[in-house]
Design brief:
226 residues, two-stranded antiparallel ribbon, 9 helices
Length: 226
């Protein structure tokens, strides 16, 4: 990250944005060394969740102001096989969930407000708009909402969809996901231009953490460069 001034006071970081994403002790050590106060544990695969449960040292997360866990999105069997582990982790931390994967998992009711559903990108067939998410929240009325502003952009370049989601679910808002993104949903480094584009949505969400799912870099050309 080349432009760090004040960043950690405005943002949190997702461990999935780093090369250390598969090494939990190293990822947490980096977050601590870089003075991040909010961290999301990106356990989006079953092996990462398994290693998190196995390898994370006791007390490693005590120094952060807020910790959330991004639940796995791909399973060889089913999400229900990991109900016990995710429920155990949710005793202390919010669990970020993809609605297309978890909408039919009745055991999520036991997570109560620790279950947090995020809106999906244009590649997904469900979970992208107000109608989809309204059905999810009717099923899980205590659940929270994570606004992924980059996912909004893949669906609607005007970002009007983001305002619709905030109008409908703003009272449930727990955090944001912020990143650069390609039209096909591939995340890339976050730039100042991305933040400027997202500003209308960011400005409505100052009360919750903004979690970077891809590191923030300064792509401003150097003086005299072509």
């Amino acid at each position: 990250m080349s432009d760090t001034t004040g960043v950690r006071h405005r943002f949190g970081i997702a461990t999935g944005s780093w090369p250390e994403r598969d090494d939990w002790p190293a990822a947490i050590a980096r977050a601590t060394q870089e003075s991040w106060r909010v961290v999301e544990l990106t356990a989006i695969t079953v092996p990462r969740l398994t290693s998190l449960l196995r390898d994370l040292p006791n007390g490693a997360l005590d120094g952060f102001d807020r910790v959330s866990l991004h639940a796995p999105v791909l399973f060889e069997t089913s999400a229900s096989a990991w109900a016990h582990e995710l429920t155990w982790l949710a005793r202390e931390h919010d669990v970020i969930l993809h609605p297309d994967v978890y909408r039919d998992e009745a055991w999520l009711e036991s997570l109560g407000p620790r279950a947090v559903f995020e809106n999906m990108d244009a590649v997904k067939s469900f979970g992208r708009d107000v109608a989809d998410l309204r059905g999810v929240f009717e099923r899980f009325p205590a659940a929270g909402f994570c606004l992924d502003v980059a996912h909004v952009w893949t669906n609607d370049r005007t970002l009007a969809l983001g305002h619709e989601l905030l109008d409908a679910f703003g009272e449930r808002l727990r955090q944001l996901h912020v990143s650069g993104i390609e039209p096909d949903g591939r995340h890339r480094e976050t730039t100042a231009a991305d933040l400027e584009l997202y500003e209308p949505l960011l400005g409505r969400c100052s009360q919750v953490p903004w979690v970077l799912e891809a590191e923030l870099v300064d792509r401003t050309p150097e003086p005299g460069s072509s």
